[in-house]
Each structure stands twice: as structure tokens, then as C-alpha cells.
Amino acid sequence: MKDKLVRLSLWFAMGILTLPAIVVASGGSSMPPPTLPSTPSNSAPQPPHKSPAEEAAELYNSGIQHRDKALALQKEAAAAPAEKDRSKLEKKAGKEFEKAISDYRRATQLNDKFHQAFSDLGFCMRKTGDYNGALEAYNRALSLAPAYAPAIEYRAGAYLGLDQVEDAKKAYLELFPSDRSRADELLGAMKGWVQKRQGDAGKMTPEMVQAFGTWVQEREELAKQTPSVSELQIRKW
Questions:
Q1: Could you tell me if 229 and 180 are in contact, meaning their C-beta atoms sit under 8 angstroms apart?
Q2: What is the per-residue burial (b if ≥16 Cβ within 10 Å, else e) of 30-53?
Q3: Which among 169, 166, 165, 168 is positioned nearest to 202, based on CA atoms?
Q4: How far is it, in rounded angstroms, from Cα 182 to Cα 191?
Q5: What is the pLDDT of residues 100-145, one digit of tens each?
Q6: Cys-Cys with 134: which of 15, 111, 151, 158 at CB 3.0–4.6 Å?
Q7: Residue 145 CB contacts under 8 Å (≥ 6 apart), including other chains
Q8: Average model confidence (pLDDT) across the chain
Q9: Cα–Cα distance measured from residue 159 to residue 41, given in angstroms and rounded to the nearest whole number
Q10: Where exactly are the structural domains of the chain?
């Protein structure tokens, strides 16, 4: 008997025999194998799907950040005493404008009704010297929102860059009764254009530059005598 038990122990140890299934006393059936907990997925949760309009809005906001950074760099460049520093800062500003242009382009591709994005696209293109591209973007913005004042003002800036002073005049006259602050900003840009062209007329004749300068002076005097809508409202109070 002792030898038989020894042989059985050896067989179990060698895996020749296996233990019988455990029998539940109450029912006599074998116990089911334990259920293992499910293994959690290693993949990260997927972000909610964004609509094209939502993606366009995010790109537009990103473009604004690059645009504002570029403008700050340009301001810093203008105040830099050394030419080397000014050149370096202007290059950095140019790169930021290009990043903004890329964001605005993608935003308008995703949402072709996004007039603000078209307008800011034109602004940044104008800042990089692409006046014709800027005009195309501004025209698209104004075809969607004809009274959008930023596009009216900045398109006039592109007109000045192309020496299209008559178109710039029309923009000023359109802005003057509706958005006085932007009209004043445009008039300042016109004065700057006159000063620049007085030293170098470019494709304009000196007489044309002088005539436009006279018109700007007359509009400036008239603006001083004409209160804006906000000033009239203050007087009423």
C-alpha cells in the first residue's frame, strides 16, 4: 500500500495523472472556471469629432495669434536702433505672417463662408507685400459681408500699395459715416502714402501725388469739423 501511494505521488508530480474536477456538494456539478476581468484597452480615448466649421474656427484663432505676434515683432523692429536687429525682427515677423496665412487659408477651405478669415487672410497677405492676393481675399470677404468695416479699411490699404488712390478714396468715403475710427486710421495711412510718394512718386506723377495729398488734407480738415456718431451720442446725454 505504501509503495502504491508513492507511485501515485510520482505520477501526479510527473503530470501523468490529473486531479478530478471539484464537485459542488449541493448540486454535484463541476464548478465553472473563474471569470477573468476584462483587460482595459491600451488605446487612448478618441476625441469627439469636430465639424468643419469648428476646425475652421480653431484655425482662425491660431491665425490671430500668429498675426498678433507678427505685428508685435514689427513694432519691436521699428524701435530697434541697429539695422541688424531690425532685419532679424522683420524676418521673424514675416515667418509669423506666413503661419497666419496658412491657418487662414485652411480655415477658408473648411468654411467658405468665413468672411472674417478671408479678411484677415487679406490683411496678412498685404503685410507680406502680396497686394493682388490681398485684394482677392478682401473682395471675397466683402462679397459675403458687404458692410464688414475691417475688410473695407484694409482693402483700401492694399489699394494704396498698388497706387490705386481713387479706389482708396471711395473706401474712405464709405467708412466715414459708418465707422469713424476706421476712417481715421485709413486717413492716417493715406497721409503716410503721400509722404512716401513725395520722395519717390513711383508710377505716379508728381502732380497726381500732389492732387491726392490735397484731397487728404481737405478730408482731414472736414473730419475735424464733423463729429462722429459716438461724439453725437455723448452730446445727447
A1: yes
A2: eeeeeeeeeeeeeeeeeeeeeeee
A3: 165
A4: 14
A5: 999 999 999 999 999 999 999 999 999 999 999 999 999 999 999 9
A6: 158
A7: 115, 151
A8: 85
A9: 59
A10: 52-145, 147-224
